[in-house]
Design brief:
GO molecular function: histidine ammonia-lyase activity
Oligomer: single chain
Keywords: Cytoplasm, Histidine metabolism, Lyase
CATH superfamily of the largest domain: Fumarase/aspartase (Central domain)
Number of domains: 2
Largest sheet: 3 strands, antiparallel
Catalytic activity: L-histidine = trans-urocanate + NH4(+)
Strand order of the largest sheet: 4-6-7
EC number: 4.3.1.3
Radius of gyration: 27 Å
Organism: Streptomyces evansiae
Structural class: mainly alpha
Number of strands: 9
Shape: elongated
CATH architecture of the largest domain: Up-down Bundle
Distance between the termini: 28 Å
Amino acid sequence: MHTVVLGSSGVTAAETLAVARADARVELGAEAREALARARATIDALAEKPEPVYGVSTGFGALASRHIAPDLRARLQRNIVRSHAAGMGPRVEREVVRALMFLRLKTVCSGHTGVRPEVAQSMADLLNAGITPVVHEYGSLGCSGDLAPLSHCALTLMGEGDAEGPDGVVRPAGELLDAHGLKPVELREKEGLALLNGTDGMLGMLLMALDDLARLHTSADITAALSLEALLGTRKVLAPELQAVRPHPGQAASAANMLKVLANSRLTGHHQDEAPRVQDAYSVRCAPQVAGAGRDTLDHARTVAERELAAAVDNPVVLEDGRVESNGNFHGAPVAYVLDFLAIAAADLASIAERRTDRLLDKNRSHGLPPFLADDAGVDSGLMIAQYTQAALVSELKRLAVPASVDSIPSSAMQEDHVSMGWSAARKLRTAVANLTRVVAVELYAATRALEIRTADGGPRASDGGRAALDAVRAAGVLGAGPDRFLAPDLAAAETFVRDGSLVRAVEAAVGPLA
């Protein structure tokens, strides 16, 4: 199994995904241990002084004016975890919680939080044991970090609350720690606060969305090309010289993908044979412009994510010169904005895909295809209701595109009077990504059936990419044209085929690497 060794200078997106999704092991490197020990020495020195220091010898948030005596400080740190573990609603997915834990450990290892090395080691041990704290959907406002979600993780470190074992069974955290030979952590000055005060949940979900959306944009380029081909459209609009006139890099990449997929097609370019038309509809002709804008949005979001991965988000922070300073770096606005931006791009990519699907099913605009791609139209309804499902998904995607980051709500007796709602933006983006996957799957299902009809009985040869997609999707159990049947299993199989990357792999095997 792959092992990620933590230093003090941040982690990569690939390392985060390896821990979150592939259960990679985590180790603390020598650099991280040195940074942890150095910062802790600073906190210990401050703890002995009579002057109050936020998070070390004071209360929290609106209660920061109270100086806490030394004999109450361990209780203070336990109490912040217990009181802040106030999440409600459904459980958050295991991969999200693992990303949340790993990214918090990344910041702890930076040497800017003042957490003891043994606490950091306990965090790594929890990940390596496959113990996943129960974290709930609601509780984070995306400012002062993802407080409630991170508190539930810290609660498990203390041996309290509930967690899921590697067998998938939820048990009391103390029992799970004991079963794996792990001891509950006794928190000291600043450590409770340091374990809670980060934007790690929203960042983890951003990284996973970026990974998924990159694959979905390539998949959507493929399905757009197949729809263009099935509609007898022209690929001339995909020429590199036309993209160069408007030099957006994402547009050029999408157009190049579509051209690769359409190599050796005998169907494209016949748009004037049966029903003369000068140019294709926008949903076909402008596919690279829309998908390309989404690709450029992904690039911007990656830049933000990379900066966050190199950051140490905590308050207060331990600086290199030994100062411990309060700050506002826990505000989630940078991450929240791009999470909302990605939801907008996902909604529009789904919207244009649905319009292409509708054209494939409409006998008045499909240039010779049977109504709804039905076997015996009237007796059979074909894919009529598959498009209904797709339209319902697109409608929800449009609602999910409404930004969360503009909806601040005050908290903590007006001390925390402006928040990012970045966690909410991340949660709705996860739903948007899942819905976009389904929308692309429906277009794939319709486009491959249309190609099958076009090329049946010695019809014109489909493109290299089209034939590869058609053969692979049939091999994956997605049935082809024919009389009506129970459609949901086919659509579910197509969804899995898109989600797990099978579509991209199958087409790349025939046409070469796609962007």
